[in-house]
Amino acid sequence: MEKFLLPAVPRSPPEKGPRPRATEGEEADPAQQGSPVEAAKQEVAPGPPGPWKKIRAEGLSCDYATLYGRAQADDIFRQLEEEVEYFEGECSSSLHLLHIFGKWHDIPRKQVTYGDAGLTYTYSGVTFSPKPWTPVLNRIRDRVQLVTGHTFNFVLINRYKDGHDHIGEHRDDERELVPRSPIASVSFGARREFVFRHGASRGRKASQRIAPVKLQLDHGSLLMMNFPTNRYWYHSLPSRKKVLAPRINLTFRKVRTL
């Protein structure tokens, strides 16, 4: 794996990659500062992200960094567990199914979407209408936007209760996505292995022999999947029975507005 990791390099214009984050909370209302309610809402501003690692292969362009320190990641994980409401119940049973190779399958994880009003997103045969942003999701989105220079209006959240929960090989190349826009994947909870596999190297009739690229996604980390990664590479989170703790993953996207 080390051959795919290169030293971080300085970034220039915002839209071409991650950038240093500005300090949060600079415009807080002075009249509210010091009150018990406001003090409870204030958080220590996260420091700059850890060194960026560039992950490169044929047609693959990703950047990986630590977005939050351990204490802040722990706190955000707790808030996500309290605020996020996953699709469940009889009224949304269809949202627990995926359409793969002509058959419907149960989703081996919990799932939900949040985003701006009026957006829709179709994934594996199911169309999602996002719920309104919550405070913790807005804070994470703000953090991601500030350190990357990209904007996002939609997030797909997956919760894996342990290593048995997983997601199979797929590409995030849905037509609703703004062309050439990156996808920002933020992870909290258990460390899990994330695998990229080139489309030409999949299956028995593979036309090329290209080694898969494997990453360990840490608690509080950010993985930027840049263009053209999702055109050529599939990615998955395989089952890992030895993982006993839960993981929450948020993939921020830029969806077309009608």
Automatic annotation (TrEMBL):
Gene Ontology cellular component list: nucleolus; nucleoplasm
GO molecular function list: broad specificity oxidative DNA demethylase activity; cytosine C-5 DNA demethylase activity; ferrous iron binding; rDNA binding
Q: Where is this region: Disordered?
A: 1-52
The UniProt keyword set, sorted, is: Dioxygenase, DNA damage, DNA repair, Iron, Magnesium, Metal-binding, Nucleus, Oxidoreductase
Q: Which residues bind substrate?
A: 101-103, 121-123, 173
Q: What residues does 2-oxoglutarate bind to?
A: 158, 160, 170, 235, 247, 251, 253
Please report the stretch or stretches of sequence annotated as the Fe2OG dioxygenase domain: 151-256
What class does this enzyme belong to in the EC scheme? oxidoreductase
EC numbers: 1.14.11.33
CC cofactor: Fe(2+)
Q: Which reaction does it catalyse?
A: a 1,N(6)-etheno-2'-deoxyadenosine in double-stranded DNA + 2-oxoglutarate + O2 + H2O = a 2'-deoxyadenosine in double-stranded DNA + glyoxal + succinate + CO2; an N(1)-methyl-2'-deoxyadenosine in single-stranded DNA + 2-oxoglutarate + O2 = a 2'-deoxyadenosine in single-stranded DNA + formaldehyde + succinate + CO2 + H(+); an N(3)-methyl-2'-deoxycytidine in double-stranded DNA + 2-oxoglutarate + O2 = a 2'-deoxycytidine in double-stranded DNA + formaldehyde + succinate + CO2 + H(+); an N(1)-methyl-2'-deoxyadenosine in double-stranded DNA + 2-oxoglutarate + O2 = a 2'-deoxyadenosine in double-stranded DNA + formaldehyde + succinate + CO2 + H(+)
Q: Which Pfam families match?
A: 2OG-FeII_Oxy_2
Basic and acidic residues bias locations: 13-24
Family membership, please give it.
Belongs to the alkB family.
Q: How is the subunit organization of this protein annotated in UniProt? A: Interacts with PCNA homotrimer; this interaction is enhanced during the S-phase of the cell cycle. Interacts with nucleolar proteins NCL, UBTF and NPM1. Interacts with XRCC5-XRCC6 heterodimer.
Q: What is this protein called?
A: DNA oxidative demethylase ALKBH2
